[in-house]
Each structure stands twice: as C-alpha cells, then as structure tokens.
Amino acid sequence: MASSEAQPASNLPPAFLASIPRHETAVILAAAQLKNFGAKRVIITAGDPAAHLFLIRSGRVKYFRSTSSGVDIIFQWLTPGDVFGLGTLLKRPFEYIGSAEAMENCEVLVWNHASIRSLAELYPQLAENALIVIQRYMLAYVERQVSFSEQNAGQRLAALLLDLGNRTGRVSPYGVEIDATNEQLSGLADMTPFTASRWLSKWQRQGAVSKKRGKIVIHAPETLLVE
Q1: I need a labelling partner for 209 at 20 to 30 A (CA). Which of 12, 117, 125, 197 fits?
Q2: First to last CA, the chain
Q3: Other beta carbons within 10 Å of 132
Q4: Hey, what domains does the chain have and what are their CATH numbers?
C-alpha cells in the first residue's frame, strides 16, 4: 500500500483520475505502490505482458520502441500526471506496445493487474478516463504524422520546443528552460541530430534560444513561431 506521501503533487491534475470524487481517489491511490526508478532504468519493455499500470509522480519517462537494428523510435516524453501500461486494465492484457525508460530519477505509482481491474469495476469513471487518455495519445500521434507531411523541419522543431516548454519547462528571469539534448529533440521531431543542431544554432544567433549542456532556454517564442 502506498503511504500518504505517494499522493501526486497538488498542482498535478492527472487525467487518469479526473472527475473522480476525492474520497474515491484516495482509495485508488492507496492501492498503488510508490516506486523509484533511477535515470536510464528501464521500467517496462515492449512485448512483455502488460502486468502493471503506471502513473508518473515526478520525473520524465521516455516511451519508445526499438527497431531490429537497435534504433529507438520515440513516441513521447511522459511527464508527471501521465500514465502508461493502460493495457493492464483489460481482462486479458495485451503486451506492452512500447518500452519505458526513466530519463532522470522518477517516482511512479504502480498498480498490478488484479488491483487496477478491481478498481475500474468499482469506479467506472476510471475506465472511462483511461479511454480518454488513450484517445489523447492517439491524437498526439496522428498530429505528429500530419505535421511530418505538412511542416518543414524547423516548424516541427519549433512546435516541439513550445510544447515541451509548456509541459515541462521551468520559468526563469531569462526565459523557459527545457532539459533536452539535440539527440532527444531530433528523435521527437523526426529529424537527424545535425538538422536539429542547425536550427537551434540559427535560433541562437537570432536570440530566440540559448543552448547549455543538456538544456535549451527559450527567450523569444514568437521568433520560433515565424518558422
């Protein structure tokens, strides 16, 4: 059982728990285990049976699929409030469709198959929320595919930076700081690291962004939108 310290931070409204009364939410959270995963730790592996459902409490998780040649195709960066392993809700769970790896030290709430199934039967809103989350993930994937055909590399990278700044950025007197490397950004924006570096260098010369080791600071988002 999770202790009271396992509650998501008050500024996080997980979609997975939306519209569920507080006393029912408390029961759902109490059924989870709070687990810590260090940076680079693989949490689940694509193809394994979906035996657990996860809700991120802190940190970031890379959700991806590896090709036969060893290349990681990144589907999404998951952040606090996001869930994965939703196939665990099924009576006969599918395999995990992707792998999840902690990008930094993470705290994650974990429910096993029997527990989350029982909770979904007891609180039907939980299952409905899971469908909403899946729909949002599918919409994000579809929009990403559409952008690939309609936008150039700079437009895709600009949209990605603005999205990451909104979801994961830290506001400072100098702008919005994002933890990301050229390689990570290129994977999410469907381009080579060289192309990502070229655009970031251009924006840095224009004063729109600045680069540090493993970090990007957005100073002038309106300049990015021009692309």
Answers
A1: 12
A2: 50
A3: 13
A4: 4-148 (2.60.120.10), 151-226 (1.10.10.10)
At 102, list the tokens. 């902690």
Q: What is the pLDDT of residues 77-112, one digit of tens each?
A: 999 999 999 999 999 998 999 999 999 999 999 999
Report how far residue 1's alpha carbon sits from residue 6's, in angstroms, rounded to the nearest whole number: 10
Give the C-alpha separation, 179 to 173, whole Å: 17
What is the reported pLDDT for 22? 94
59 contact partners, CB below 8 Å, separation of at least 6: 37, 80, 102, 103, 104, 105, 106, 107, 108
pLDDT at position 123, please? 97
pLDDT at 108: 98
Percent of the chain with pLDDT over 90: 69
pLDDT category of residue 74 using cuts at 50, 70 and 90? confident
Q: CA nearest 82: which of 134, 159, 139, 145?
A: 134
Whether 83 and 60 have beta carbons less than 8 Å apart is answered as: no
